[in-house]
Amino acid sequence: MAARPLVTVYDEKCEATKSTVRLPAVFRAQIRPDIVSFVHFQMLKNTQQPYAVAEKAGHQTSAESWGTGRAVARIPRVRGGGTHRSGQGAFGNMCRGGRMFAPTKTWRRWHRRINITQRRYAICSAVAATGVPSLILAKGHRIEQVPEVPLVMSDKIQELKKTREAVKLLKSVGAWPDVQRCIDSKRLRPGKGKMRNRRRIMKRGPLIVYGKNDGITRAFRNIPGVTLIKVDRLNLLKIAPGGHVGRFIIWTEGAFRQLDEIYGNWSKKSAAKKDFNLPMPKMTNSDLSRLLRAEEIQRALRTPR
Assign residue 80 a region: left if phi > 0, alpha if psi is -120 to 50, beta otherwise? Predict the structure, then answer.
């Protein structure tokens, strides 16, 4: 978790301003990749569209078994004569032109209800992980030239309206190598998705979280890999794509200041979410090897025989 007390605010030229922001408490929340992965998987299920084979598929022929005593299998066979089709097996899943085994139905249980406390825990964990440079690098983002993590920009960037201005901003803060990584990764999708209007795939780049849209969405929306989201609409599918924590996020100052109000800070509950505060870790120190070497524990242990 990030533990820096104050975060510097940078302007559009990537110069440090005199303004600093206190690190929101959500960045000190416990990082639980297991909960993030589980909730992400459940949320993805809620995007599915029902599918099924035709109800009459494989049964649109007149067929009946010949019964026993004719030295052939008892599978139903097509009636009639004078054609190759007559006498062929029908209906069964092992037959040519037959139905599939256990035909799919549209009334399958496609969607999942997700515990709201788990959803909120997952979001807090995912946001906390975005403040740890090692996790961001482990996810593949190129942040070697970024001055600070978490990266907070002044609210002036919300007024950008042109893509060339947005590109200039990303280059000035050192985030362009991450965008270039996305551009270089564009490739054809393997499999049948090519036929289904999703031919090309690409890596994910920076996520820009803003407080007020004064044109920022128009400026950044055409840059490959860049995603935009409003701070009060944070989505786990965007913050932890693939269920993996550690996405590179660029915050605007106003959005960054709202995080304590949205998620609370242990001493004060959230103002936006009913009866919610940040999850409390079971252990204040989870470094087991350091705990076992602590003087208090070593003093209480018996000497080895």
Answer: left
Residue identified by tokens 């705990």 is 291
Mind listing the pLDDT tens digit for each residue in 91-145? 999 999 999 999 999 999 999 999 999 999 999 999 999 999 999 999 999 999 9
Q: Which of 281, 278, 283, 267 is nearest to 120 (CA)?
A: 278
Instruction: Provide CB contacts within 8 A for 41, sequence distance 6+.
Output: 243
CA dist., res. 152 & res. 20, Å (int): 9
pTM attached to this predicted model: 0.87
pLDDT tens-place string over residues 9-32: 999 888 998 989 999 999 999 999
CA distance 186 to 200: 7
Coil/strand/helix, residue 281: coil
- As a residue count, the chain comes to 305
Identify whether 150 is preceded by a cis peptide bond (ω within 30 of 0): yes
Half-sphere exposure of 253 (CA within 13 A, CB side): 18
Q: 249-252 and 227-230: which strand pairing? A: unpaired
Structural element, H or E, at residue 6: strand 6-10
CA separation for the pair 255, 294 (Å, rounded): 40
Which of 207, 222, 206, 219 is CA-nearest to residue 159? 219
148-196 pLDDT per residue, tens: 999 999 999 999 999 999 999 999 999 999 999 999 999 999 999 999 9
Spell out where the chain has E strands.
6-10, 16-22, 63-64, 77-78, 151-153, 187-188, 200-201, 207-210, 227-230, 249-252
Q: Pull the structure tokens for residue 295.
A: 């003087």
